[in-house]
Amino acid sequence: MKIHEYLARNLFAEFGIPIAEGDAAQTSDEALFIAHKIGFPVVIKAQVLAGGRGKAGGIKIAGNEKQLVYEFNRIKNLNIKGYCAQRLLIVKAIDIKKEYYLAVTIDNIKGDAVIIASAEGGVEIEETAKAHPDKIIKFYMQGDKILDEARWGPVAVRLFNDARLQQSATSILKNLLKLFFEKDCSLAEINPFVVNKDGNLVAADAKVVFDDNALYRHPELIALRDLKYEDADELEAKDEGLSFVKLEGNVGCIVNGAGLAMGTMDTVNLLGGRPANFLDVGGSSNPQKVLNAVKILLRNKDIKVILINIFGGITRCDDIANGILTALKQIDIPIPLVIRLTGTNEKEAKALLTQAGLTIYTSMRQAVTQAVKISKD
Ligand code: GDP
Ligand code: MN
Known about the structure:
Layout lengths: L4 H10 L7 E4 L2 H11 L3 E5 L12 E4 L2 H12 L11 E5 L3 E12 L4 E7 L6 H7 L4 E5 L8 H11 L3 H20 L2 E12 L4 E3 L3 E4 L8 H4 L9 H8 L3 E4 L4 E5 L2 H13 L6 E4 L6 H12 L6 E8 L4 H14 L6 E7 L2 H10 L4 E2 L2 H13 L1
Bound molecules: guanosine-5'-diphosphate and manganese (II) ion (MN).
């Protein structure tokens, strides 16, 4: 889950990371009020959950009231990567001496948290990483979180020559690590991390992404969610107790268990098809869940076939069969269903579904082959 900069800033402040004074405004009157409180010049920043706002014209400096109102209205109507900002952040403009980059994130391949730092901040770090990998400092935490400052401390020291800045950066990095681990983030990023004309370090931007799977531990964070940026189908699926991720293909998948759901997508790919989604109905099998899953999948008009792949353990195949029958009764399913059921109560399930005129597969490969074939017709 991503949150807006004006909220990420509050977290920075809570964790002792220095930010510029300011607040979010929904109207130009609110913007003027904030600007008078903090003093001109101010920076006006579109609050959209997309990178590169600066390049898109969503960030401007205003030196007086007239400029502020003009830029506020212009940015408010700006379309940035498909989104219009509901709020604009008004912050005291920092007189920037130099821009750095500092972040903590997860390296999924190494399975480790990593500190990334660079003296080349402000620009997109991916570009620097490609063109000048030598200008990126990386430090892998190796499970050490923030306890062992002696290990990660040198990262902050390498960024700056000045002893005072080294000390200040070390303390900011410690706070960033604290925020990252306490709030179960997948990214906590300061770009640009700036030295101002007084020689102090300030976070001129704040980006925080939380691990969705850990959100249940942070009810205080769920309130910060901006639903406009989340896929409506994925949100509804979550409410129904389904794990659902939309993909680009045309073979709809309904599977029990995350491992089998992954295996099903792999097999679809292997046999030349393209899965339209990941969907795990979960371990226990409530017929209602199958019905909800079918309803959600049918909204995706790309889907040409629904592949139901169930390996009955705790999940009872007859429960799934009843879910399928309910779905067939309650809604019009205009595309073919390919069903593979095996395991607990397989016989009962087969009897129920065969009576209804459906073909049931026991072999996963056969079922997937058939679904992929239909998806290509
Ligand atoms: P992003 O483009 O969406 O990442 O937005 P940022 O908040 O990082 O701002 C983009 C760029 O605008 C920064 O790299 C800075 O160069 C500039 N900028 C942002 N805030 C200030 C500020 O307070 N003062 C000055 N002089 N420039 C700023
Ligand atoms: Mn930025």
